[in-house]
User: What shape does this take?
Amino acid sequence: MSMVSDDIAARRGVRLGLPLAIGAAFAFGMSGGWARGLIDAGWTPGAAVTARIWVAALVLLIPAILSLRGRWGVLRHNIGMIAAYGLLAVAATQLCYFQAVAVMDVGIALLIEYTAPIAVVLWLWLRRGERPSRRSILGAAIAFVGLVLMLDILTGATVNGAGILWALGAMVGAATYFLLSARADTGLPPIALAGGGLLLGASGLTVAGLVGVLPIAWTTDDITYRFGSVPWFVPVLAIGLIATALAYMLGIVSTRMLGSRLASFIALAEVVAALLFGWLLLGQLPDLLQMFGGVLVLAGVVVVKLGEPAPAEFVEPLPEARLSDVEPEGTAV
Assistant: This one.
């Protein structure tokens, strides 16, 4: 009976987790389009990302505190990891991405960032001696060919070197995010890690702006998008509340329901979302060669992830249902 109950709970978890994971991907994917409008209006990337992280940090502060249940010792024990997560995986990643979308299409910038799994494989090989499988090497080669096509290098088109470097910086930050998030031995609730990291990341960016290291400038003028103009606070709230706070919460819940491996594959929908919102908000659309290159990048990343050893996944069970509540197979729920 227990196995039947666990199987039903797991299937329900997938059924609930799948739309949540897709929602998280689309929420994350809209950030570049909204941010590009702010940047074109006179906001610096530093100002846009600082506003984004502060809004999300304040929204997640209470849920993060509640998730700890008074276990402040766990927080103190992991303060170094939280600092690395906030400053590198959150602040640096988002800042580099916003710097990249300031000078290149949001979809292309995100595709470069999404080569992060390849960087993770390379890091584990160099640092821990974990040799990648043949499938992972093949996936990396496919993604590299796609990246060349996506950047129009073969056609002699002008390549924005600064934009590519910023996008690669976002890729390194995203790889750091994957490595830190994979640690399951900290005892730190995921939402506490996200909330604490966002708070430290926002504080670090603010300090950098105050001392003049990070250029901070903004305007209260209306922001113009493809569909028209909106007040400045609309994109700020959109990227802070929806593309960060809501996206993190949906991502955490869906990952616990689906497991990190399945959730990471579904997260690739963020690239599709970025292309969609880049077109809807900014009118940006890659040409056919770039689209084909983007497909190769995504295919390469999928092959790399398929080449990873499958970890033992923990799927968070739903509350146990009574046997009388379990409906027969094939019955509409």
About this structure: The two ends are 20 Å apart (CA to CA). DSSP finds 14 helices and two strands in the chain.
